[in-house]
Amino acid sequence: MAETVAPRAASTILLLRDSAERKEIEVFMMVRHYEIDFNSGALVFPGGSVDKGDKEIIATPALYSGGEGLDEGTLSFRIAAIRETFEESGILLARPNGSTALVDAKRASEIESACRGDLCDSKLTFLKVLADNGMVLALDALVPYAHWITPEGMPKRFDTWFFLAAAPPEQVGAHDGKESTDSIWVSPREALEGGDSGRFKLPFPTTRNLIKLGKQASVQAAIEDIRGKSIVTVTPVMTKTSNGRQLRIPIEAGYDGDVFEVGSVG
Fold first, then answer.
1. Which H or E run includes 219?
2. Closest residue by Cα to residue 80 from 121, 46, 109
3. Which of 72, 79, 222, 242 is the most buried if burial means most Cβ atoms within 10 Å?
4. Can you give 108-153 as a three-state secondary structure string?
5. Minimal CA–CA distance to 80: which of 69, 68, 93?
6. Domain ranges of the chain
7. Would you give the end-to-end CA distance of the chain in angstroms?
């Protein structure tokens, strides 16, 4: 019997904005590089694994706000979410030291140009990026949205927290050209239609969260709907059927069902 792989802690953010043109909510998504060994070629939200540096930031409370009452594990998920989003999109959810407003697009762009490449190449730590630029992470800008753990039996497993956040004004974002090859602001409806047509490859959790998000008419509505709600952890149970594979998730998690026929699991 194969040994069960322990899930790796990870975080992702659904960056949201309202589209006046489409009159729909939009979310920032990226196409994973085809040579990446997990979810290659898939359309996903920015995110990634919690690392040692995220935990080191916890020891310097001056570098973040909105973490009052949160334990170390919860803090590390939120810090990783903001760091990974900056690395993968260039969008920075932080405030200048002493300010109550998120960093403006011009200053965020300057920090991105000076630091993002070296941060992605591990030549610079996120702690140093924040300290040198007088930035304080806006942990309170993140609202817990979902918690998924990869099914047992998969070769790579992740314990992932999904957060909602309103995108900072005029911070547009762009893929890094390494881990991701394209990026778009897209409505949940368009992303799901692209998944159905074959334009996009959508992992199972991404599809479920897009369907859930698509029920909301605005960023404010999406955040208010989930804020303060209890998040039900989803660990899909996978079984083989005559038609392929079947996944079962808790109905209490609030998705579009509890049993799904799937060809493969991302």
1. helix 219-226
2. 46
3. 79
4. HHHHHHHHHHHHHCCCCCHHHHHHHHCEEEEHHHCEEEEEEECCCC
5. 93
6. 8-229
7. 23
Under DSSP, is residue 24 helix (H, G, I), strand (E, B) or coil? strand
Longest dimension (CA), the chain: 60
> For the chain (length 266 residues), average pLDDT per consecutive 10?
80 92 87 52 89 93 93 96 93 96 94 92 95 97 97 88 93 61 85 91 94 95 95 92 85 95 61
Q: Would you state the pLDDT for residue 23?
A: 80
pLDDT value of residue 183: 80
What's the token pair of residue 146? 């979902």
Residues in the chain: 266
The set of residues, in sequence order, having a beta carbon less than 8 Å from that of 191 and lying 6+ positions away, is 27, 29, 43, 200, 202, 210
Within 10 angstroms of residue 6's Cβ, the number of other Cβ atoms is: 7
CA gap 15, 200 in Å, rounded: 19
* Architecture of the domain delimited by 8-229: Alpha-Beta Complex (3.90)
Closest CA to 24 of 206, 150, 189, 239: 189
260 forms bridges with which residues in the sheet? 247
Residue 246, token pair as written in the block: 């079947």
- pTM, 2 dp: 0.90
